[in-house]
Amino acid sequence: MKKIWIWSITAALAGFLFGFDTVVISGADKTLQALWGSSDVFHGVVVIGMALWGTVVGALLGGIPANKLGRKKTLIWIGIFYTISALGSALSNDPITFAIFRFIGGLGVGASTIAAPAYISEIAPAKDRGKLVGLYQFNIVFGILIAFFSNYLLNGIG
Questions:
Q1: 50, 54, 83, 92 from 133: Cα distances, Å
Q2: CATH 1.20.1250.20 fits domain 15-25+40-154
């Protein structure tokens, strides 16, 4: 049972990254817009909104790899998408490149909404299924909280 809790918590970290990734951009929003001199519409729809577009696509299509590869392998690929997105976003020097890497992260976020709860529900015994899948939901909210906290701590830096 201890292994199932560890595996469930690990899979539920996808929810943490979902919440964190969704909100953390708000701390850099105005700074990025000023840095790149982008219009309000371009900045909102492309630079900031691209992660949302990726999330929609990832949620719509996330069941395909989850069914073909299995939930566990899909979660590994989601982790790879998150890593590529984080590194690419951090190293981007222009709004289009930044938006592309945010879209990749959004694909991971969207696919995680399918794969993580499904994986947890498959490995969990019936009596613990609700609370273990609930870890994913809890981690979404926890990720949002930590993103706001980190934005607060980093406010005014660079």
A1: 28, 23, 24, 35
A2: yes
